[in-house]
Amino acid sequence: MSLSIDQQASLKQRIPFLNQGDDQLNKLFYTQASITHLKSGQPICHEGNECSHLAIVLEGTARIYKLGENGKEITLYRIGQGESCILTASCILSEIPFPAFAVCETDIEAAIIPAAAVQQWLSESALWRDYIFSLVASRLSNIIHVVEDVVFRKMDRRIAGYLCSRATESGALITTTHQVIASELGTSREVVSRILKDFEQEKLIKVTRGAIQLLDVDSLSTKQHEV
Q1: Straight-line distance from the first to the last Cα atom of the chain, in angstroms, rounded to the nearest whole number
Q2: Contacts of 136 (CB under 8 A, 6+ apart)
Q3: How does strand 53-59 pair with strand 62-67?
Q4: In sequence order, which residues have a C-beta less than 8 Å from that of residue 36 and are 6 or more positions away?
Q5: Mind listing the pLDDT tens digit for each residue in 40-99?
Q6: Domains present along the chain, CATH in parentheses
Q7: Cα 150 vs. chain centroid, distance in angstroms?
Q8: Distance (Å) of CA 43 to CA 33, 47, 227
Q9: How far is residue 208's CA from residue 227's CA, in Å, rounded to a whole number?
Q10: Torsion from C-alpha of 78, 209, 204, 219, nearest 10 degrees
């Protein structure tokens, strides 16, 4: 069943490649795509699952992460409006199981495309190929950055960088927990707590229940680049 005229207009506002003049791709998209809604915290895909659809996020944020045998998590990347998951695309093209976990960080609205259509459009639309390949290029750089952080940067530098990046988004008061930071960076809660205590003793931050106040962002920023 084709999407309604209102749904098509909404998609064109939120998915850039639908405005680039490929009428055939648009027709295929509106005929074969469907709209789905997911709740915050809802799992999207588990490691080992087959990928039967590719989702393009219209509203909200999804988190893609890896879970180790020791129970530690590490975030690989996030997906926002107009974006999709390169691991899902890779699994569809190579017909291998999903190698990580995906979860809704917020309520999500997404356009869902069947795996067969994802593969078919690659041979029929240069615009679709450009979308998929640019997606791969941008997300690979994210994953390489995560690997570099884990291998080459000390944890106190990584936590300082995490706090500074959140400060840019949220101001001087960051709503988070020690466990959230640990899951984000692939370490333990105990390590995060110890490093935050050190930062607090240096008067760089003030830790409160469920939040961290940044007292000296400049010094934190300097610390994240120290060798």
Answers
A1: 57
A2: 86, 89, 90
A3: unpaired
A4: 55, 109, 110, 112
A5: 999 999 999 999 999 999 999 999 999 887 788 899 999 999 899 999 999 999 989 999
A6: 5-151 (2.60.120.10), 154-224 (1.10.10.10)
A7: 17
A8: 21, 11, 38
A9: 29
A10: 10
Pick from 34, 42, 47: nearest CA to 62 = 42
Give the tokens for residue 18. 């639908």
- Please answer whether residues 212 and 181 qualify as being in contact, where contact means their C-beta atoms are separated by less than 8 angstroms: no
The pLDDT of residue 193 is 93
Residues in the chain: 227
* Relative orientation angle of helices 126-152 and 86-94, to the nearest 10 degrees: 120
| pLDDT above 60: residue 216 | yes
| 4 torsion bin: left (phi>0), alpha (psi -120 to 50), beta (else) | beta
Amino acid identity of residue 53, one-letter, is: H
Give me 181's structure tokens: 């930071």
